[in-house]
Specification:
Elements: E1 8-14, E2 19-23, H1 25-32, H2 37-43, E3 55-61, H3 64-69
Antiparallel strand pairs: 1-2, 1-3
The structure holds zinc ion (ZN).
């Protein structure tokens, strides 16, 4: 996903909840890796209903006006949680 060039927006939609969210492609890349928007779609899950199969994702150019009213979902932090797994000998 080489979309860091000016104005690209990643639109992610859940057809089940009928919600649409906008992300900065660079931030998606940080979380998911350098993959195509199609692969992004396969990896994401709706935060509302938890389903994957209704998701769609697209990259598009937003014009200046559009961008000003657009509210992005920004990456706040990436937590690396430590999980401990025990196994008996
Ligand atoms: Zn949903």
């Amino acid at each position: 996903m080489h979309a860091h060039d000016a104005g690209q927006v990643a639109g992610v939609r859940c057809g089940h909840c009928n919600t649409r969210r906008f992300y900065k492609p660079a931030e998606l890349r940080e979380v998911i890796g350098n993959v195509t928007i199609d692969q992004v779609r396969k990896k994401i899950r709706c935060q509302q209903c938890g389903k994957r199969e209704w998701m769609s994702a697209e990259l598009f150019h937003a014009c200046g006006e559009e961008r000003q009213v657009m509210r992005f979902r920004r990456l706040k932090e990436i937590r690396w949680e430590r999980r401990v797994v025990w196994v008996d000998e």
